[in-house]
Amino acid sequence: MHDVKGILTNLGYTLSDSGQFYRTKPLYRDSSSNTVLSVRKDTGRWIDFKEQKFGSLEELIQITLNLQDLNEAKSYLSDNFQFTVPKTEKEKLKSPIVFSKDNLNHIIPNYSYWVNRGISEETLKLFESGMMRSGKMKDRYVFPIFDKEERFIGVAGRDTTNKQQIKWKLSGEKKLWAYPLKYNLKYLLKEKRVFLVESIGDMLALWTAGVKNCIVMFGLSITPKIKQVLMVIDPQKIYLSFNNDKNRAGNEAAEKAYRNLRRQFDESQLEIRLPFKNDFGCMSKEEILIWKKQIKT
Fold first, then answer.
1. Rounded distance, CA 247 to CA 231, Å?
2. CATH number of the domain encompassing residue 131
């Protein structure tokens, strides 16, 4: 039985150890960096940070050997090596649930809930949001979630009455979301800094203050999808900006997320930077600007 290391070495790669990954120089293009290509030790899935490309072990074999199609790469792998992708990885790669975009026709342009909280109509229209008039999200303020193929894969709905037991209701596979990349990927790539926040409300408050390089966690856990996005962007800095709760839930979650990300990122790339108050929605635009100014760049 062969492993990823043996396969890559056979292809001519010189590997350096980086936790769950190997780092190496890409052989399929010119590069002066010995670490720009990252390959998972267990599955062979790879990310080229410079080119912002990623894929399976078979795809890496294809471009390395300059083969015509993926089937040739699969044949090369099966003919020369005994290797099976771990079952857990195959499960991670399943496609998301895709909703009909006809459901978006039930969103009405009533922005009063967030406008009363200091968010502009222009911003709310950008996110294609509004009040849902029917279905499971009826009478909630909703934000549709799209993937990179513009497929409608989820929705986050905020209770506007303060009477519902669940403040934010989510529909879809949250672990496959990377929000709001449809709207802010250009800012993430330009800034090379990312703020990880708990909710859409936090993101909207930061956006209004001009901080548009955020990714919403929809909770306190770093999902494989968000990790994947971060590795493709390869930011100079990742700020863990969870809620500053009195019960320290956000603080403890940020510390746990820091340890989690430390497996893939250098310590110099990570920093816990909580809001002054409970969350960013509790802070004024001026307070957020002061908070941002205190961050070392």
1. 31
2. 3.90.980.10
Structure tokens, 281: 């929605």
Distance CA 265, CA 18 (A): 9
Q: What is the CATH number of the domain that holds 82?
A: 3.90.580
Say yes or no: 133 and 196 in one domain: no
What is the side-by-side order of every strand in the sheet holding 46-48? 16-18, 21-24, 37-40, 46-48, 53-55
Grouping H, G, I as helix, E, B as strand and the rest as coil, residue 111 is: coil
pTM beyond cutoff 0.70:
yes
What SS3 class is residue 221?
coil
Q: What is the pLDDT of residues 231-243, one digit of tens each?
A: 888 889 999 999 9
Contacts of 220 (CB under 8 A, 6+ apart): 198, 242, 249, 250, 253, 256, 257
Nearest-CA neighbor of 265 among 202, 200, 215, 192?
192
Over the range 113-128, which residues count as b (16 or more CB within 10 Å of their CB) and which as e?
Answer: bbeeeebeeebbeebe
Phi, psi for residue 169 in degrees, rounded to 5:
-110, 130
- Looking at residue 90, what is its pLDDT? 45
Q: Which amino acid is at 292?
A: K
